[in-house]
Amino acid sequence: MNAIVLLVLGVGIMLLGYFIYSKFIAERIYRLDPDFVTPAHTMRDNVDYLPTNRFVLWAHHTTSVAGAAPIVGPAIAVIWGWAPAFLWVALGTVFFAGVHDLGALWASARNRGKSIGTLAGSFIGARGRNLFLVVIFLLLMMVNAAFAVVIANLFVSTPSSVIPVWSAVIVALIIGQLMHRTNIRLLWPSVIGLAFLYAMVLVGEQVPVSLPESLFGLTERSQWILLLFVYCGIASMLPVWMLLQPRDYINGMQLGIGIGILFLGVVLAAPTLAAPAFNTNVPAGTPGLLPLLFVTIACGAISGFHGLVSSGTTSKQLDKETDARFIGYGGAVGEGLLALAAIIACTAGFASLVEWEAVYDQFGGGNVAAFVQGGSTLLTAGLGIPATLGATLLATMVVLFAATTMDSGVRLQRYVIQEAAEIAGLRVGGVVGTLIAVGFCVALAFGAGEEGTGGMVIWPLFGTTNQLMAALTLSIVSVILIQLKRPAWMTAIPLVFLLIMTVYALLVQLRQFYEDGNWLLVGMDLVILVAALWVALEAATVINRTRREAREGAGPARDA
Prior knowledge:
By secondary structure, the chain is mainly α. The protein has helices spanning about 5-30, 40, 55-65, 70-75, 80-110, 115-125, 125-155, 160-180, 185-205, 220-235, 245-270, 290-295, 305-315, 325-350, 355-360, 370-385, 385-425, 430-445, 455, 460-485, 490-515, 520-550; strands at about 215, 220. It has one domain (about 5-210, about 240-550): Amino acid/polyamine transporter I (Up-down Bundle), CATH 1.20.1740.10. It contains 22 helices and 2 strands.
């Protein structure tokens, strides 16, 4: 099949979802109110709480939730064929991710910008909240450790991406000062910033940067991992206007350009999908499609990490409640389009089935490298961009997204640590909280594997934990809707589906980890499985009680 057909179908489904389904959800279910005063105004501190232009906030939200996962997940999942991955991304974006992301943002904004973990305590109970915080902490630790390894690997394999990536930080700092301290419009800083970024891509092609092969016993990859965590620790403590917002805004525009040129390359090259629709000749050792497809592709279909960002940083910057539809649901569509681009690049960017099977010779063989390779082939065939320059462009895009997610992830992990300390009657400052967060992530990155590979050792559990987090977030949104006597089927159906698939996947993985003798993952799997079942039971109890009270005529427990 021609890849153009897949492109048109995918984009069409997601746009219909945004213009029709999200409008119904926003107006009839969440009932977004233009007159509601958001926490960004009532709790403004110009550090975390700050009313923000909706386009800037969309860019922050979308690039924070995107990271490398909507590329890595689909790039791995197409080993089962392009059809299952495509259907899950397209339909998951419309009926799962958009509803989840918008719901988490709305629920947090209606409750003083509280994180999803704190909301669990308010609506499910203290036990549910405590278990929720455990799952959140583990998820954030996995995200940060894994993405650090992804970025470090790309810096090592594509040293031409180093200069443009770090130049983007300088551009963001300058734009942040201009936006915050002057009344300058966004247009010219955006144009100049993007022009500078792409000029640095050309410079990076001519001046690739590599660290020493060994320094104090650390490999080049390990050195990059440490430098990345030093950067993220500092960046996560800066006011959001100084680096987070402007860098994410630049990355958001880069996301649009990157997806645009990839899709244009597909249209002009009109390639045929090399991969089969359903792969009946998977390599030995490849797990079954069910349930692993639904946890391998998390970001790009539905992701619990989105709920953490929605309620952790985005809700604190929401200017008007009605902006939540564009930012929350629209952000899910943006990530879904990136996942669609990854599917096409990893299935149409190869000359033949034989060439594709050479890359997908084992489960996990297709990853970011397959996306960069396939995508650069499409750019060369459709737009005439040299393969090496195309690889640099795509590697830079992936690194900038992953670094954005790491920055937000460390900031969110600090919030979790501070919330947990407050529950225990302790007070933890921002610096101490950040040091604890970074310390755990570094320990996982280096302690779970050799030479800083630990972040990828725990990757099999990332997708399961991510989907578990999404299910738990949907349970909270469902409780709030039921208390308000509003329909909750659009959150309850994804909730039940995700909970079944996640528990099923955890059991399948537990058996595999046990047979492999991987006791670290066995232990983490058991903790996550127990937490999942316990919180699900707590949530089910609250939902049943709330529905019973609603039938008996009791009023809603709170105004959202």
